[in-house]
Amino acid sequence: MSIRDSVDTPDSVARRRPIPGSSWLRRVLMVFGLPTVLVIVWWLTSERADSIYFPPLSEIFGLFGKTWFESDRITHDVVPSIVRLLIAYGLALLIGIALGIAIGLSRSLRSITEPVLEFFRAVPPPVLIPVLMLFLGIGTPMKIWVIVFGTVWPILLNTIEGVRAFDEVLRDTVKSYRLGPRRRLAITLRGASPQIVTGARQGLAIAVILMVLSEMFAANEGLGYTVVFFQRSFAIPEMWSGIIVLGLLGVTLSLIFRLIERWLLFWYHGQRQSQRGGN
């Protein structure tokens, strides 16, 4: 390579300089490109379908507003499902993080609880639905605790691993400065927070699945109940519209979670970006 080739000229700098607005346009295309293509493919391939189980997407969209907005399904089915999901997810976060910190900080407590945790983690949460129905009935408490039981494990296990992997040098530094319990807890939480957030993200996806499952048994309202009701009534386009609502709910929760994650872990993302050389 000659010296002339290695020197940036004004023309080469101008060619490398991004076009104003191109990064924003690229990001929009990356986010909405594939979903738009999938919707178009679904629309075209289903337009002349004559199967009762796979109605045209145009028919599903045509009934969407009437099914969900011209009735009381938003207040009767969607809102109660979301409220139960948020309460259960909050409880799972509280239990998982509190127990995870306690177990992660104590080697003896880890030894005692590890067999029990492995046993309960292996139990599929839907299996517990009939058992919880015996003790809690078929109301809201049963649905909430089914979600909590399945959601708490990824949060708990990731919190334990995050606390265990806490930097030993930083741990010794905290001890040597004789900081109070509250400061030590805050520093430990901050160090383990990337792993805790990873568990919380996994738990959110499980919570949505269990919300639907818990509403399919002996329920009279909720998104899961509504989808099953449409299926049993052979209202297939309405059933597909319920599945679309569940997908939109999952996307919305994921976006909200990502915003909260960026706010909580701004220091971690900045640290990783600086390690990659600012890229």
Describe the structure.
This protein is mostly helical and 279 residues long. Helix content is 80%, strand content 0%. The chain contains 13 helices and no strands. It has helices spanning 3-6, 10-16, 22-46, 57-68, 73-105, 107-121, 128-136, 140-164, 168-176, 181-214, 223-232, 236-264, 266-275. Helix 5 crosses helix 10, helix 7 (128-136) packs across helix 8 (140-164) and helix 10 runs antiparallel to helix 12 (236-264). The mean pLDDT is 84.
How is the secondary structure organized here?
Layout: H1 3-6, H2 10-16, H3 22-46, H4 57-68, H5 73-105, H6 107-121, H7 128-136, H8 140-164, H9 168-176, H10 181-214, H11 223-232, H12 236-264, H13 266-275
Helix pairs in contact: 4-12, 5-6, 5-8, 5-10, 7-8, 8-10, 10-12, 11-12
